[in-house]
# Entry
Amino acid sequence: MPKNYIARRIAKEFKDGMYVNLGIGIPTESANYIPEGTRVFLQTENGGLMFGPKPKRGESNPDIANAGAEPITMLPGGAVFDVATSFAMIRGGHIDMTVVGALEVDEAGNIASWKIPGKLLTGMGGAMDLLYGCKRVIVAMTHTDKHGNPKIRKKCTLPLTAAGVVDMIITDKAVFRVDKDGLYLEELAPGVTAAEIEQLTEGTILNIIEWEHIEIT
Amino acid sequence: MPKNYIARRIAKEFKDGMYVNLGIGIPTESANYIPEGTRVFLQTENGGLMFGPKPKRGESNPDIANAGAEPITMLPGGAVFDVATSFAMIRGGHIDMTVVGALEVDEAGNIASWKIPGKLLTGMGGAMDLLYGCKRVIVAMTHTDKHGNPKIRKKCTLPLTAAGVVDMIITDKAVFRVDKDGLYLEELAPGVTAAEIEQLTEGTILNIIEWEHIEIT
Amino acid sequence: MAVQITTAEAVKKIVDQSSVMIGGFLGAAVPLKMIDEIAAAGVKDLTVISIGAGYRGGGVDVGKLVVNHQIIKYVTSHVGTDPNLIKQIVGEEVELELSPMGTFVERVRAGGAGLGAVVTPVGMGTEVEAMAQKITVDGKPYLLFKPIRADVAVIKAYRADPLGNLQYQGMSNTNPIMATAADIVIAEVDEIVEIGEIACEQIGTPGIFVDYIVKGHSYEARKVIYEEMWIATNKL
Amino acid sequence: MAVQITTAEAVKKIVDQSSVMIGGFLGAAVPLKMIDEIAAAGVKDLTVISIGAGYRGGGVDVGKLVVNHQIIKYVTSHVGTDPNLIKQIVGEEVELELSPMGTFVERVRAGGAGLGAVVTPVGMGTEVEAMAQKITVDGKPYLLFKPIRADVAVIKAYRADPLGNLQYQGMSNTNPIMATAADIVIAEVDEIVEIGEIACEQIGTPGIFVDYIVKGHSYEARKVIYEEMWIATNKL
# Structure
């Protein structure tokens, strides 16, 4: 398995001129692999568009930060605004794509990512707005949990973050398109077989034979 | 009757530090009589606060205009913004006072100013927002119409612009406070008698004897 | 991300029966060149959405489209400044959809912001009640209005950069709101500058909302146009 | 029109059981000095309204009031960054009122803008349905939320003039929205400048919304505070 495989696979979804909001963790990491010559405009829900890497020490600005209040820089042509504008942008369907992590996804495109009853209490933050409003939703996650249990379910067991919104699932083992009727296996990671995916996926795979390996470099 | 009596009487309602939206005509004219040393911040619903007089020829800015798209200037400390902010300001109760003209006002504080069925079609513009949202509503108008009929009614006959919002009525003949229970005559213009006001007012005056003359210079 | 095109190319985005939002406020800060192009193109049966008819007297702003009989429906808060338009409304040539100005603004904002409705107390106790759905929240009565969107929004800003970031000067009025609420957004600007020349805090409408940028009159030319109009109407 | 006072005077506007909105975003662009003053004043049983708990790890931003046990109710969209707060919520010391972040923002905006409710599709099909009223507009289901207002809003801006006009730099985030939605609005700024020094287009919050201005840390001092926090947490 190539290093940072998921992040690098996400980056293949970036198209020139796209406005994208990336969730924390692996999705954010995918920005490091944006193809040369492809302009991707990153949005941050606290009120910025076209932000760049973190600044050097001594060059940070206390009021230029990402949604985790961590220091970032603004690129030339970048814009700042308030959160009412930011969420109008998000909820109003102006952002081309969001990539987020998840605890579970199911064959109906439902996603659970914000709460484990009795265990994880964080609040949904901006996740529900992003999942509802962005034109395209990609979930990036490990194929199974740490016990090896499938995270792609027939039906999510955890409280949903949004219903019927997921367009694509990228895991360390495979890529699925999520269509109205269910899951389509589109790619396998290097060395992974379709049979293995079928075994590690609880949701029904509609096209078990039509996958392909694609090269991630 | 002193010249521009109504406008000059309106100006007595300005208190230092007030944010005010003035309707077109006599209310706008009242800004010429703001007492020395009293800072009144004028709002215009197309998106400006603290505007000043019209500019000189050659010094206008095509994007600095009032709600009638007529040229104005911005005073130092003035602010410009979009109409969403402007009407949030208006409807949200942030403006201390509005002064508007009217076709009719009644003893319940109703005001009719935007429509004469079959005759006057203009649309309500921002009048309903202003009347609903501003903390204090003053109606400034002639006491009677051009046929000598009372414009202060028991009940408005024309379609309302807003219900139960008027706090004060300033006419060329008198000043009324409009309270929850009705009309209180507070002042008479020079040379006007209470009996005359009673005759020219359709709404019931609750305190016909407690008026006073006040000096307008 | 926006693309710069000519006004002649831009006007082709508007066809017969299009719904078109036009930015500005009673003639101020309107996209003058694009309005001229729409008038010249002669497209018909337009649903025009703007906060109020043009400058007092008519024939300016949306007034040009009125004179040309291009409008079949007008969605607004005020028509009092344009006698031609009033005639067409009374003559049932143009259908009128009114809401109070602040409500109109929120309806457009809701259309652009993905909100399902506007809930406002303004208009309670008036004829406006008949234009909306009544709703009670916390025991208080309100009016519920539906969002407004358009096929095309034609807006006016001061400057743009090639990414479509827009800077306003003076009252931006309806322009930043309408920039969010149409399938296609065309911004007419005085000037197009390099990326980075408009600082991040000066951007009033980020390029994400803008599809096409067109070069309008220069600021100086526009100043002359407005001064002439204001002098002719005794306002300057 | 605003009045300039000291942070010590300003904090007296907040008493036991006050509802207090705090501007900023997870620790960024928050009114640092005023939060210190509120913590020092020791006022109790506060209903605190902010978009999310402070910087990751706790003890910063509203986290200071958490450590001090001053909060009885927290209205927000996110608490995941503050383990102390989560503990107090689980232990039922603090009541939690959650809404999705965009909905939270619109609820505050509605509170300041005189709107009766927020109607949004976000949260349909999730547990959020139980936090709102369901409503159908044009055949589509939405959630209706009530506006949020506070007794006092404490916000952060870059500069102010003596009229209370505020200028922001960088992400203004929740500050301009919260400035509209409280009975008393206190703005903490890096610097107070002469009237006219902030150009009309640079004013992010007009003075009409602001009651009190307080002088916070200077920009340079604030930069040091943030750099230290970021270096300590490996973010710089």
Q: What stands out?
A: Helices of chain C lie at 7-10, 32-41, 63-67, 83-90, 101-113, 175-178, 219-232. The first helix of chain C runs from residue 7 to 10. The CA atoms of residues 134 and 143 of chain C lie 5 Å apart.
